[in-house]
Every structure is written in C-alpha cells, then in structure tokens.
Write a structure and sequence with these properties.
This protein is of the alpha+beta class. The chain has four helices and three strands, in the order ββαβααα. It has one domain: GIY-YIG endonuclease (3-Layer(aba) Sandwich), CATH 3.40.1440.
C-alpha cells in the first residue's frame, strides 16, 4: 500500500499533503523536523489518509488534495473534526 496523507501543524494550523509507503515512519519524521518542507512547523497531527495500491493513483490524489477543489473536499469531509478543533 501507498498512502496519501494530510497533517496539520498545531503551531500554525496549516495543512500539508504528502505521500508515503510507511505512514507511521513518515509522520514521525515530520514531528522530528526531518522533512525540509515542514521543518520547524511541528508538532503535527495526522488528520486524514487514504491508501492506494498503485503509486500513480496516490500521486494523482496528492496533487488533487493540494488544489483549491481538493482543499474544499477536505474541509467538507472533515468539517465536524475541524469545528471541534478550531
């Protein structure tokens, strides 16, 4: 399995979407400041992920979640969670 995931910074409340084959390891790397694109923005919380069998599918999904439509999809999908956490 390959995963598309979305994490949210508890520091600035911004989202980050990425892909990985090892979700636990990658999430730890984000929280340990080992990922350049999210360095010094942690701690993070994992708020969404999807599993795919095909790498091309997961990369396509990541690109979609980074678009305006994808962000709206996530906010709609997670609206109950987001309203609870501010």
């Amino acid at each position: 399995m390959v995963y598309t995931y979305v994490i949210r910074s508890r520091k600035d409340n911004k989202f980050y979407a990425g892909t990985t084959a090892d979700l636990r390891k990658r999430f730890s790397e984000h929280n340990e400041n080992k990922v350049i694109s999210t360095k010094n923005r942690g701690p993070f919380e994992l708020i969404y992920y999807e599993g795919c069998i095909d790498k091309n599918d997961v990369f396509t999904r990541e690109r979609y979640l980074k678009t305006g439509m994808g962000k709206r999809y996530l906010k709609n999908r997670l609206k109950r969670f987001l309203s609870l956490t501010g």
